[in-house]
Amino acid sequence: MPGDGVDKEALKAKMAASKAKLAKLKLAQKRKALAAKVAAKLAAAKAADTASGAAPASGTAPDATPPPAAATAPPRTSSTAAPTRALAPSQTPAAEFVGEPSLPRGRAATRGRRRAFRFLPKGALTARLRRQREAAAAAATETGETDKRFDDFHVVGEGAGAVEWWDADIGPNTLDNLVEHPVPIPPPVVGAGAGATKVRMTARERQKLRKRKRKELEEERQVRIRLGLEKPPPPKVKLSNMMRVLGIEAVADPSAVEARVRAETNARIQAHLDRNAAAALTPEQRKAKEKAKRMEDTSQHVAVAVFRVEYLDAVAWRASIAANAKHYNLTGTVLTGPYAVVVVEGGPKGIGKFTRWMTQKVKWTDVTLVAHDVAKRAEKRAAQRAAGVPDLELEAAETNLNEASIAANACSLIWLGWVRRRAFSAFTFEKGGTLASGRAFLKFKNCEHYLDVAARVGPSS
């Protein structure tokens, strides 16, 4: 009641503490009882193993009852513990779990543990199989019945040869007839991973790399000087630092010191010029270096360019085309007729520079470039007519050569592409005079389609 002065909350707390204490006591009793029970089982199992091992030696029967283990078992600590029971030798007492009754036992208790690998010694399985075979063979000899369980097993090392036992029924000739060996075909173009790709550095990166290399060389030189392997360089005295370096000597005789400094400066300049002259390339070496820079690898693919020129009978233009093709290591041919077709093939850089020269730099409409050629042709034609030997090619060239034809002259790139290999071994001029003879020549080279492209394009604007 409200007036009794009893604190209900304190009473509830005391009752809860009492219940918790009682639960702890019961749990402790259960643990003690379980520990005593397990200890008794272990002792009984040990006594049973000892009795079973000593029974054959003493002459007793194998199924004799082992002595009771009550004398060796520890005393019970609680009246609630279960009576002790002897374990059979096949049981494993170590599988029991000592602890809380609610915790997992057996395999569940060790499921989360990491077990180490257990490796068998070499030949263990083979030896076991061999023993089983021998036992089966002995049993077959006694009973007369053959055990066929081991007929399909093969022990490694017994009769092993070049052919496996499961392929013994297949002959080598039969196997070769069943296997097809395709002919290896090399790829047309080598992939990107075939070789190391060259990386182009920027000007800033090249400058940093040069400074780093020069710094490393200077450090090596300083190390050799400190070790005494190289003499230190003489002090570099100039007119600007002469008084600071020489000091009293410069004050005592400045004229002599100045003359000596000028001589040393001239000697350093001359040594620099001598080093440059020694490192300079000879004209032959310079030409070889420039030629090596123009060489390109055309073993994988070849670039081809085809041009159409409306008038190409002038000797100056022909000579320039041949010289530039030779300069850029290009091969091909020039076919003449109503119009000229120029075919060149080579590396991509050379083709690009030759194309730019043909389409941009050559003045195809300049009459003064062919004036000398006109005079030479006229003299030659007159001499041949006087001798009674007409030259049809010169007459056709003279007919085509006039100011109107040269003013309309132009060069156009009609085809640019790639082929697998070169079709020409050098750069030549075909002397057919007609496109029919040129088509026969290109057909022999398997590239007569170049003339078809030139015919479809038509005269250049």
Report on the structure:
Residues 45-63, 70-90 have a biased composition (Low complexity). Keywords: mRNA processing, mRNA splicing, Nucleus. By secondary structure, the protein is α+β, with helices and mostly antiparallel strands. It has three domains: 9-55 and 65-100; 209-289, no CATH class; 298-457, Alpha-Beta Plaits, CATH 3.30.70. It contains 15 helices and five strands. It has helices spanning 8-58, 124-143, 172-178, 203-226, 242-246, 248-252, 254-279, 283-294, 315-327, 348-361, 371-387, 392-400, 403-407, 435-444, 449-457, and strands at 302-309, 331-335, 340-346, 411-419, 427-429. The protein has a five-stranded mixed beta sheet, sandwiched between helices. It is extended.
CATH class identity of the largest domain: Alpha Beta
* CATH fold description of the largest domain: Alpha-Beta Plaits
Shape: extended
Structural class: alpha+beta
Going across the biggest sheet, name each strand in turn.
4-1-3-2-5
Q: How many individual β-strands?
A: 5
How many helical elements? 15
**N→C terminal distance:** 124 Å
Number of domains: 3
Beta-strand fraction estimate: 5-15%
* Average of the residue pLDDT scores: 78
Unreliably modeled segments: 55-101
Q: How many strands, which pairing sense, and closed or not: the largest β-sheet?
A: 5 strands, mixed
Radius of gyration: 54 Å
